[in-house]
Amino acid sequence: MLLLLAKRYPRLKLILQDLPERVLQAKNEVWPEKCPEAIAENRVAFEPIDFFKQSPVSGCHVYYFKHVIHDWLEPEAVAILSGIRQVMAPYSRVLIHEFISRPASRVPDAEALYEQAPEPLLPNYGGGTAKQYNADIQVMVFLNGKQRTLSEFITLGEKAGLKFERLWDVGEMGLVEYRLPDGS
């Protein structure tokens, strides 16, 4: 994702944080081939991290995670988000890019946390969202993780001291946006 951002928005300063071996691979193999101009112009930094032992770089405008939180059960997911919260600035946002599991039972539109499919379709579009449910089974079996509903993401954020801002519907997936609570 950072490669796409580096190419599309050449004024962005990007920091790639991941496990040490992934950072070395990105720095020495991927980025020199795919986006050498970002390296030459010092627009991308590579920082190894174990987010259970360290906090991310402090004061970033956006902390973006794609397909990370679903790898972990609630205690670990809260620990990851809590580590981010500790280094956030008042302007910072956390974006979690994942499948958002949508319940198959309809609720009144006024109570819905997301836009439901029109009747007579199931509110989660039925078979059209099978990939999300299959992904849930895969992360459960292989990683002991889980896909989450929006309510579960809101709860994770609250437990980590973050305020849910909004859900960005990006088609098959969603972006859950958090910020610091008012007065933090």
Describe this protein's structure.
The protein has two domains: 1-49, no CATH class; 64-179, 3-Layer(aba) Sandwich (Rossmann fold), CATH 3.40.50. The model has no long low-confidence stretch (mean pLDDT 91). It is globular and about 55 Å long. It has helices at residues 2-8, 20-34, 36-40, 74-87, 130-143, 150-159, and strands at residues 14-18, 44-48, 62-66, 93-98, 100-101, 148-149, 163-170, 173-179. The longest helix has 15 residues, at 20-34. The chain contains six helices and eight strands, in the order αβααββαββαβαββ. The strands form three sheets. It has a four-stranded mixed β-sheet, covered by helices on one side. A two-stranded parallel sheet has the order 1-2. 35% of the residues lie in helices and 22% in strands. It is an alpha/beta fold and 184 residues long.
Q: Any descriptors?
A:
alpha/beta; 2 domains; 184 residues; two-stranded parallel ribbon; 22% strand; 6 helices; 35% helix; Rossmann fold; four-stranded mixed sheet; globular; 8 strands
Mean pLDDT: 91
Number of strands: 8
Query: What is the CATH architecture assignment of the largest domain?
Result: 3-Layer(aba) Sandwich
According to CATH, the fold-level topology of the largest domain is Rossmann fold
The SSE string, one letter per element, is HEHHEEHEEHEHEE
